[in-house]
Amino acid sequence: MRFSSTPRGARLARRLVSDRLDAWGHPYTSTANETLTLITAELAANAVTHGRVAGRDFEVRLSAGEEALRVAVSDTRAEHVPPPSPSEPPGEAESGRGLMLVAALADKWGTAPRHAAPGKTVWAEVHCPLTGHSLTWD
């Protein structure tokens, strides 16, 4: 699903991911829902802050496989790729910890070039065995 590259778009992405996970059988208060919702919030905030191009949206894709839940956030700024290993920001910096949270919460995460459009995709997976279902929301 596409969202405006604004703080409002990032909030909406987070809320819709949480709603979709609840519909897929991961209640709002479950660890899987809370973890993926927080990861989505961080990735969407980064897309709005660092990946924003005026007039272009960012995209969120949520998928559930047999072993993991995956969220992928795509934006149109290919030149601002996150480092493979996030580090602690300097001193009293008020930002720069989002990817550290993603790395700590996700079982796997990474980046890839955006398919069929300029930009990048940052994705994260959380191990959460399902009952053999394969679902996608985008």
On the 0-100 scale, what is the average pLDDT?
Answer: 85
- Tell me the β content: 15-25%
Q: What is the count of DSSP helices, taking H or I runs of 4+ residues?
A: 3
Rounded Rg: 14 Å
* Unreliable runs: none
Categorize the overall geometry: globular
First-residue to last-residue Cα separation: 4 Å
SSE blueprint:
Elements: E1 2-3, H1 7-23, H2 31-50, E2 58-64, E3 68-75, H3 98-105, E4 108-113, E5 120-127, E6 135-137
Antiparallel strand pairs: 1-2, 2-3, 2-6, 3-5, 4-5
What does this structure look like?
This protein is an alpha+beta fold and 138 residues long. Helix content is 33%, strand content 25%. It has helices at residues 7-23, 31-50, 98-105; strands spanning 2-3, 58-64, 68-75, 108-113, 120-127, 135-137. Strands 1, 2, 3, 4, 5 and 6 form a 6-stranded antiparallel β-sheet that branches.
List keywords for this structure.
138 residues; alpha+beta; 6 strands; single chain; 33% helix; six-stranded antiparallel β-sheet
Question: How would you concisely characterize the structure shown here?
Answer:
The chain is an alpha+beta fold and 138 residues long.
